[in-house]
Amino acid sequence: MKILEKKKIVHKKKVAHTFNEKYILEKLKHPNLVSLKYFFQSEAKLFFVMEFLPGGDLFHHLKMKKTFNESEVKFIASCLSMSLGFLHQNGFVY
Fold first, then answer.
1. Does pTM surpass 0.90?
2. Number of compact structural domains in the chain
3. Fewest C-beta atoms under 10 Å: which of 49, 55, 77, 83?
4. At 38, which helix (H) or strand (E)?
5. 10-residue block means of pLDDT along the chain (94 residues)?
6. Is residue 73 part of a domain?
7. Is the distance from CB of 64 to CB of 70 less than 8 angstroms?
8. Residues 6+ apart with CB under 8 A from 61
9. Which structural domain range is residue 62 located in?
């Protein structure tokens, strides 16, 4: 779950960015990309409930291992390529 404070979003002028993030996460349906399951808000906070990924994210694995071997890099590169292709096809990246 990602929790954002509304005051900080407004103070940092990230309101449009936050709305875009919510919109994109709602639209993403791809096996290599995390998706938004639920969104709700309180008077002071926004709550993004994301899909649970038991293996963790790429940064976590890089931090733990420090380096990847060649076959791991090939797998990661292919997943990233497919993900970026999906985002491009759906107009999220150019």
1. no
2. 1
3. 55
4. strand 36-41
5. 96 94 90 92 96 84 92 95 94 84
6. yes
7. no
8. 55, 68
9. 2-89
Looking up residue 47, the CATH number of its domain turns out to be: 3.30.200.20
Provide the residue type at 51 as one letter: E
* Number of other CB atoms surrounding residue 22 within 10 Å: 14
Say which amino acid occupies 70. Answer: E
Two structure tokens written together for 48 = 């993004």
Residue 73 to residue 53: CA distance in whole angstroms: 20
In a domain, 39, yes or no: yes
| Rounded alpha-carbon distances, angstroms, from residue 59 to 39, 42, 65, 66, 88 | 24, 30, 10, 10, 22
